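Z., the sequence and structure:
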Amino acid sequence: MYRTAALVTLFSAAEHCLGFLYRIILSRAIGSEGLGIYQAAYSVFAVFLTVAASGLPAALSRIISRHRARGSLHRERAAVSGAILITLAFSLPATLLLFLFRGQFSRVFADARSADVFYILLAGLAPTCVYSVLRGSFWGNKRFFAYSFIELVEEIIRIGIGISLLLFVYTGLYGANVAAIAVLISYICSFAIAVVCFFARGGKLRAPRGELRPLLSAAMPVTAMRASSSLLSSLISVLFPMQLQAAGYSAARAMSEYGIVYGMVMPIMTVPCAFIGSIALVLVPELSEQYYRGNRQEVRALTARALNATLLVACSLVPVYLVLGEDVGVLLFSNAESGHMLSVCALLLLPMSLTMISSSMLNSIGCEKHTLGIFLAGSAAMLACTFFLPKYLGAGALLAGMACDSCITALLSLLLLQKKTGKLRFAAYLGRLVAALTPAAAAGWLVHALLTRYLSYLPALFCTLLVLLAAECAMLALFRLVAFRTLLARFFAKKRKKLPAKP
């Protein structure tokens, strides 16, 4: 499981790095105005994409795992057909209606150029939805290489075509339109590759008799949760600056505070999600299959491993955020306030990470409606903090809302997971992690305080980081939380096996 998770993480990291570099190139090629026009169009397109397909891949993965556990291959194929039928039943009519009433719908956009970009992207809605469903079938069948590789290929195609059209080919088109054309071509290519992979690996379609209702029942709560998440973000983007202004902040400062939290702090806080998301991706089909087989002992073992791996990732990053948070904020954003918030929010990595992994596991065993209710409970707390606390805490109100949201959802998710899978035994492991990493954090803080007196900013930062990593590795090995010696021995043993035998 960990080897596969490492592979998925590698693909995900490559995809995100390429996307980040492309964002830089795109912003320079089409300018801030063009990027704003493109982003406004894409945010509206993303709403239709979310409604059409966001819940189906996870639902299909779980249903495929259930049919695999029961040895029902024909129902597995029927489920894939049903998911494709559902997503086309929404995406094709939506595309047709939006093109027919283009004049009326274009008024949604403040700039007519955003409407042009939106309609270029809209042509790829149906292929992208079908592609998402096929990825869900790869997920359910544990074909993680295909699942991750096609996504990376899509990103490479998008970047290659986008850079070629923007920098080397004169098209006479507006820059945002060219970027949208590159996205559309990448959607069509990824759809074609997924179709070829699906049928080449023996995939077949059957009449979706008896599968439509289970798919809709499983997909609707996930879709509602993700759509609600988008709506919540939009609501907070309006409500929080408004409440800050009511508390005496200027409009410019209110938007600045919001931008610091959501544009600088949150992207760094979600770094563990890249690793935990890979663990969840690999774990979900196996956990779902064992759950429907009725193998409770294996379900408890998989749950314990996932929780322990999540705690290891989150707790290992907490000392880094505590000690170097302020320096990271200055290094990445040239903003000391964002760095201070990172240090203050370091402990939030634990509930945020636990929420992510536990929600994924709950969805894999058919608790989508429960996770939707838990999400709404956490969102209510977030909104309450955003509305009532700005006049007392200023920008800290948003951090308090994040803390309440994360803690509530983590607690409720863990309680439900315990009810479904049996007693969760991670408290002792968490205690050992705290005992191991607290001295490492203290050593890092002392070294940082000493180095900043004699070294400039960057050398002190990187030297402290190296000391922190070495101290963490030493303490994790001392407390036998990670068997580095065993890992190295297995690695070199595999290397020796690959060497040709002596004649």
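The chain has three domains: 1-210, 221-425, 427-498. The chain has 20 helices and no strands.

Let me know what you think.
H.
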